[in-house]
Amino acid sequence: MIDRFDLKPGVRMAGKYDVDSFIGGGWEGEVYKVVEAATGLTRAAKLFFPHRNEGNRAVKKYALKLDRLREVPSVVQYHSTEVIRKRGQAVTCLVSEFIDGVVLEKLIKDQPGKRMAAFEALCLVHTLTQAVEQVHEAGEYHGDLHSYNILVARSGVRFVPHIVDFFDRGSEKRHAREDDVVDLVHMLYHAVGGKTWYSKQPHVIKEICKGLRRDLILKRFPTAGRLRRHLESFSWE
Hints:
The chain is an alpha+beta fold. The protein folds into two domains: 12-97, Phosphorylase Kinase, domain 1 (2-Layer Sandwich); 102-233, Transferase(Phosphotransferase) domain 1 (Transferase(Phosphotransferase), domain 1, Orthogonal Bundle). Helices cover 36% and strands 24% of the residues.
């Protein structure tokens, strides 16, 4: 069973992509920054572990989801699929747009005290919530939002997020969308310092985080749209 690929820089994939560097890995596979040999264009290639992609079902679901979300600016653009051989097995790669951003977890850890100021964290989560709301309006969901699958760039005073590594939850779309909302609140909690700093946060943070109680979060913010509107209209004390 293949549980890692460990591709080295310079390795050519599918006869057309040269590996530049390892980006990250997860339950389904690993993601690499690659360069298209014929054009010099940079892409991202997600290699799926064969035992997580029987009959190419995972790749098909992922590609179709990206295609349905192609009009959502925060979602990476799907390009193609390729097949390579690794340890005698066929491995399917999903090639998509490469986003030159910083992983949200690193962005947070690079801040003084390894946490964001309340106002900055609220601005960031507002931008993320707008992106997730667009995904939901397109009839989809993410399914596993956390600080390692959000890429963030800066443009002027704005955060520009991109969402990667969508997770398939089958037909439970309503619950998955609720999970997305709860995950957004968890990211706010994490961004301002988590448990260590929560008691010292202003009321505006606690009013959203609700002590991370899922029932209270969803009662107040049943949809991403409700959370976005709150972030745009609350009053500072």
